[in-house]
Amino acid sequence: MRIVRSLILAAGALAFAGTASAQDIWHNFQVKVGVSSIQADEDAEISVIGGDVDISDAVVPTLQIEYFFTDNISAELLCCVATHDVQAVNTALGTVDLGKVSHFPPTLTVKYHWTDLGAFQPYVGVGANYTRFYDKELPAGGPVTGISYDDSLGGALQAGFDYKLDSHWSLNVDVRKVWISSDVTIAAGATQIDAKVDVNPLILTVGTGYRF
Question: Which one is the CATH code of 28-211: 3.90.1150.10, 3.40.50.1860, 2.40.160.20, 1.10.357.20?
Fold first, then answer.
């Protein structure tokens, strides 16, 4: 009986340790939901017709998932989907409507947090962005008969702060500079126009976070 009791106590201790370990792991995660303003800082080099590009801003819901390695060091993934109106401007043909394009631009940053200022906890971050372009919508009746965008891989910088409301909830304000560049191919009938387009948006986010 003593051996059985010892085995039961040992099993209970292991189960408790496993639960505590799982709780510790979950406590390292923070999830934020918010609204982001994506403001393009666009520039382009366009063959054949010359000119520049104009890309509309967008306001979209965003999700951020963050994992804390220590109180001061974390990694954060920002996800969203945005759609922009695109025009070629100041070209030899004047303004050319290039329709709409959607993109999925997950951005991963490693962040350093200052935690000695009470509820106010500022941070900075550096990382990388991958942007996948999809769902091109061409304007009806225009000269453009086809368009394609290459995916992009570039850097990202970040700064912001969390304001802790309690041990779980916080308010978040964040700004990111993301470098996005795409080789674009435009078909206008039998004519092919190549363009190097830099989007390089500033992403401003306001949200609410929950730390498990």
Answer: 2.40.160.20
